[in-house]
Hints:
Structural class: mainly alpha
Number of helices: 16
InterPro entries: LanC, LANC-like
Mean pLDDT: 95
GO biological process, one term: peptide modification
Strand order of the largest sheet: 1-2-3
Keywords: Metal-binding, Zinc
Distance between the termini: 21 Å
Strand content: under 5%
Binding site for Zn(2+): 261, 310-311
GO molecular function, one term: metal ion binding
Order of helices and strands: HHHHHHHHEHHEEHHHHHEEH
Radius of gyration: 20 Å
Low-confidence stretches: 1-9
Helix content: 55-70%
Amino acid sequence: MLLxxxxxxxxxxxxxxxxxxxxxxxxxxxxRIGVLDGLSGIALFYNYLxxxxxxxxxxxxxxxxxxxxxDLISEESYNSSxxxxxxxxxxxxxxxKNKNLEIEEKYFEALDAILAESLLEEAAxxxxxxxxxxxxxxxxxxxxxxxxxxxxxxxxxxxxxxTLIEKINTNPEVIFSSDSERPNQKMHYFGLAHGLSGxxxxxxxxxxxxxxVHPGIQxxxxxxxxxxxxxxxxxxxxxxxxxxxxxxxxxxxxxxxxGWCQGDLGIANAILNSGSFLKNxxxxxxxxxxxxxxxxxxxxxxxxxxxxxxHGTSGIILQYxxxxxxxxxxHQETIAIWYENLKKQTLNFTEFKSFFIDQYVAETxxxxxxxxxxxxxxxxxxxxxxxxxxxLNLY
Length: 395
């Protein structure tokens, strides 16, 4: 276990049990269905929990959640996004490998039809945002293709990939800028959630899962990194090299915070993956160096104010853990520092409140709540595989 030797006040089993208890209490009133914001993510948590502790109680809870999502979808209208909509729900159904849960292929085909139309619409608008736009929808189709190797799904992904790469290589501005209709509000975002590093990471993952590599992929990857590097400069305050965002019309820079949704850790992940994909040693070294540089940021300097995956301590711990796997470089000491912060923020794993606008609120979803924390802890304890983090654009 990565954290073996740490003086925990509670065993990990007790901590996970407490997290599960809090999550289950929220299910009855929860009406959000997404993998990141709602019930689909909670179903994902139970799916992985069953891997560590197979029992009828967790099985029944998993099936109950899936049934509830189905009922909600039949009663209310939901968007197609990964974060809060149908793509997230479909991705979880495709991801779950449970011998007691059988989803008919016809059901997936109905989801395919709905989401293929949404994918085309979002791509036509150049809205590729991972959480809310085309990339998140495409993630569903990647999981479907990994399971079935269906030619029609392969065609959807190939067309999507080809169009995306051609846009990057011929008219990158439409991909690199935010979708705001107001010129003075258009941004270049740099983070994994909505920005350039997210585009980079997803593009590599998409191409990795297709049978044929697009001939323009190297040019596209190189263009994204080169564009990001035009803004690369070490900032003494944030202690990071890349900004969080840049206003296009006046080049005003917003400093990045350390986290998952933004900051150098996620950017380093994308650069490392790009280097591995292209077999480019220099890029891999750049990514590795960027990760090491973030270790100089103290907890206080980071401005991290909650435990959550999105912009909190869990997301930082998870990324250092994944970096350890990618680079064979241990980050236990850094993880230990952040783990102690995690204990403080959750009152030794008894309270799970996320900071929202100007207050702390109890939350149980993956992105900002207890389900994300539970999955992170199970991962760093090597109890489950980290592939669930694909829903966070982490590979």
